[in-house]
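Hi everyone, sorry if this is the wrong subforum. Our group has a chain we'd like a structural model of before ordering constructs, and none of us has done structure prediction before. Sequence below.
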Amino acid sequence: MESEELLGGLNPNGDQKQEEKKQSPLLSLEKDLEFYAESIKEVAVEIMVEGISATPIFIAHQHEVKLGEVILKREELNTNWTIQASTLEEFVEKGIIKPEKKEHFLKNYKKPEDFMCVFVIVPEGANFIFYPYAKK
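Answer:
Right subforum, don't worry. Here is the predicted structure as tokens:
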């Protein structure tokens, strides 16, 4: 086994090899969320105003996901991430958020007028982030 393999991409000096430096997919996600922010906010407001849910959740992914409805398709917009709109209710119904964890989620849920709640799905797993509509 090579030392690079043991050190997880670090050379013996402890530096990361230049050619192995991979850009985090989250950097492209941040860029796309900034680009999408106005559209996402419009959909969030619509979900709340129409009484569909007080807790909109958006799903960011680069593959196919059977959750929510596609609102921004990366192939059509020449971006890296597709965004789908969903709700807390759908997440509970599909078992992504367990009913006993719903209250905990709501305590951490940020004001939807100021932050988009994004469920980010990457090959390594998935997690929730709250991204501000207007970066200060």
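For your construct planning: The helical segments are 3-6, 25-49, 74-77, 88-93, 102-108. Residues 1-21 have pLDDT under 50 and may be disordered.
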